[in-house]
Design brief:
Shape: globular
CATH class of the largest domain: Alpha Beta
Strand content: 15-25%
CATH superfamily of the largest domain: Fe-S hydro-lyase, tartrate dehydratase beta-type, catalytic domain
Low-confidence stretches: 494-498
Number of strands: 17
Number of helices: 15
Mean pLDDT: 95
Length: 498
C-alpha cells in the first residue's frame, strides 16, 4: 500500500497547468520544424515560422503559448494499492474536488495568470467561473501502487471541431475522416494532430480519440519503416490524404495541416464501427507525471537545444506597412489575397458577447459606446497583463463565430476591417465584398509573439465582460495575411482547391 497526500496531487496539478501553458511537448516542436523544412507555400511557411518563434518566446518568458489557455482536463490512473490522505488529518476530498483545487491554483497563479474560460449555467447566464473550474476528470482504477496522471489544457478551437459517426462494417473509415476535414475548416489552428477513436460505444470512441492525441508523434518513423497492420496503414493513409487536400497551416494552403494521425481502438458491436475524430491544435499542451507517495511531481524542463536556430523575433520581408489610423477604402482596395501586412496604429477588440451587445444596441436605436467607422476589429480575448506587459498573450479567435454580425456592423457603422483566424462563411465574404472591406488572418497559436506587437491596451466598453470586453490596442508591426480582399476573394477557398 502506498499513501499519497492529496495536497501533493493538488500542488502537482497546479505546477502542471502552469508548465503546459508555456511549454510545447518536444515531439511537437520537432514535428513543426520538419513541417517548416518541407513547406514551399509562402503564407503557410510564414505561419509555421511564427509558431516556432512563439514556442521559443513562450518557453523563455514563461507566459502562455495561446491566449485560450484551455479547459483543465485531468486523466487519472489510480493503482489499487494507492491510499489517499491529507496532511492535516482531515477526511480525504473527492478526486473532483482535488482536481478543481489544482486547476484553481494553476490558473490564478499571480506570476503567470491564465485565462479563465469555463462558464457555469451553460443554457442560462453563462457566468465565467473566474478560476477555470471545474476540471474535467477521467479516472481509471488499475493494478499497482502508483498514481499516473495526464494533465491537458485543451483549447476550444480543437474540441469544437469534434466529429462522430456510427459507420457500417463495410464503410471506409479513411474516406469518412477525409470527408470531414474541409468542413472542419481552420478553426482548430493547424498544423496539429488528428486523434481517431474507433470502436467501443460512442462515449468510449470519443475518449479513445481524445487520449490518442497525447501519444508521441512518430509518423516520420512509421513512414520510414512502413505499416505493420491495419491500424498503422490507416494512419498513413489518412496522413497522406489529409495533407493532399491543400488546407495547410492555418488554412492558408500548403502541405502541412496534419503533423500526425493518432489512433486507438476498442472492441465494438458486430453491426457497427463507432468513429470519433478530434483534432489537437498548435497549442498542444499536455504533460504526464507519476506520484508514488514521495512528494509533488517535479517536471523536467526541455533542453534549450530544442529551439536551436529559431529566432527570437519574426520578420516578414516584403510586407506592406499599414497605418490603421489613416486607413480608408481606397487603401483596402489595393490589397490582394495572400499579401502580408504589418499593422500599426489603433484597433478595437471584440468577440462574441461584445458583438451581440453592439448589434442589440443598434437594433434598439441606441448609440454605440465606440465609433467603428473606418476602424478595424480584432477578434481576441487576451490574457491579463503582468509586469511591464501592455497586454498578456493575445492571439486571434475563430472568425466564423462572428460571421452573423459582419453585415449589420459593416452596413450600420462603417466598420472596414476585421482580424481573426480561420475562414469566413459565404455570407460574411459577400458582405465584405459588398461593403469594400477586408478580413485579415493572424496566426492562431502564436499569442505570445503577437502580444509583442501590442504597445498599449485599455478597456473602452463593456468592462463587465472581462476578457471579452472591448479593448483598444495600439499596434506596432502586427503581422497579418490578407485572407479575404475587398473583391471577396478568399485565401482559404483557394488553399483548399490548390
Amino acid at each position: 500500500m502506498v499513501r499519497i497526500a492529496q495536497e501533493d496531487l493538488v500542488e502537482s496539478l497546479a505546477r502542471a497547468f502552469q508548465y503546459v501553458s508555456h511549454h510545447h511537448p518536444a515531439d511537437y516542436v520537432q514535428a513543426l520544424r520538419r513541417a517548416q523544412a518541407r513547406e514551399t507555400h509562402a503564407p503557410a511557411r510564414a505561419a509555421i515560422e511564427q509558431l516556432l518563434v512563439n514556442s521559443r518566446l513562450a518557453a523563455l518568458g514563461r507566459r502562455p503559448i495561446c491566449q485560450d489557455t484551455g479547459v483543465g482536463q485531468v486523466f487519472l490512473r489510480v493503482g489499487c494499492g494507492v491510499q489517499f490522505f491529507r496532511h492535516d488529518g482531515a477526511s480525504p476530498l473527492s478526486l473532483q474536488e482535488v482536481a478543481n483545487e489544482g486547476v484553481r491554483r494553476g490558473y490564478t497563479d499571480p506570476v503567470n495568470p491564465l485565462r479563465a474560460t469555463m462558464v457555469s449555467d451553460p443554457l442560462g447566464l453563462r457566468r465565467n467561473t473566474r478560476d477555470n473550474t471545474p476540471a474535467v476528470v477521467q479516472c481509471e482504477i488499475v493494478a499497482g501502487e502508483a498514481l499516473e496522471v495526464l494533465v491537458v489544457a485543451k483549447g476550444g478551437g480543437g474540441d469544437v471541431k469534434t466529429r462522430f459517426a456510427t459507420l457500417e462494417p463495410s464503410d471506409s473509415v479513411a474516406d469518412w475522416v477525409i470527408a470531414q476535414l474541409p468542413g472542419m475548416g481552420a478553426g482548430w489552428c493547424p498544423p496539429g494532430t488528428l486523434g481517431i477513436g474507433i470502436g467501443g460505444t460512442p462515449e468510449q470512441a470519443m475518449l479513445l480519440a481524445k487520449l490518442s492525441l497525447f501519444d508521441a508523434i512518430d509518423i516520420d518513423l512509421l513512414q520510414a519503416r512502413g505499416a505493420q497492420g491495419a491500424e498503422e496503414a490507416l494512419r498513413l493513409e489518412v496522413f497522406e490524404r489529409a495533407n493532399a487536400l491543400g488546407i495547410g497551416a492555418q488554412g492558408l494552403g500548403g502541405s502541412s495541416a496534419v503533423l500526425d494521425v493518432k489512433l486507438r481502438t476498442a472492441p465494438c458491436h458486430a453491426a457497427t464501427i463507432p468513429v470519433a475524430l478530434i483534432p489537437n491544435c498548435t497549442a498542444a499542451r499536455y504533460v504526464r507525471f507519476t506520484l508514488d507517495g514521495s512528494g509533488p511531481a517535479e517536471l523536467a524542463e526541455p533542453p534549450a537545444s530544442l529551439w536551436d536556430g529559431i529566432a527570437e523575433r519574426f520578420d516578414m520581408p516584403g510586407a506592406v506597412r499599414v497605418d490603421l489610423d489613416q486607413l480608408d477604402k481606397a487603401q483596402v482596395r489595393q490589397w490582394k489575397t495572400g499579401q502580408t501586412l504589418l499593422l500599426s496604429g489603433s484597433v478595437l477588440t471584440a468577440r462574441d458577447a461584445a458583438h451581440k451587445r453592439l448589434v442589440d444596441l443598434m437594433a434598439r436605436g441606441q448609440p454605440l459606446p465606440v465609433d467603428l467607422r473606418d476602424r478595424t476589429i480584432y477578434y481576441v480575448g487576451p490574457v491579463d497583463a503582468v509586469g511591464h506587459e501592455a497586454v498578456g498573450p493575445a492571439g486571434p479567435t475563430t472568425a466564423t463565430r462572428m460571421d452573423r454580425f459582419v453585415e449589420p456592423l459593416m452596413a450600420g457603422t462603417g466598420l472596414l476591417a476585421m482580424i481573426g483566424k480561420a475562414e469566413r462563411g459565404k455570407d460574411a465574404i459577400a458582405a465584405i465584398a459588398r461593403h469594400g472591406g477586408v478580413y485579415l488572418s493572424a496566426t492562431g497559436g502564436a499569442a505570445y509573439l503577437l502580444a509583442q506587437s501590442i504597445r498599449a491596451a485599455r478597456v473602452v466598453a463593456f468592462a463587465d465582460l472581462g476578457m471579452e470586453a472591448i479593448h483598444e490596442f495600439v499596434l506596432h508591426d502586427f503581422p497579418v495575411t490578407v485572407a479575404v480582399d475587398s473583391q471577396g476573394r478568399s485565401i482559404h477557398l483557394f488553399g483548399k482547391a490548390s
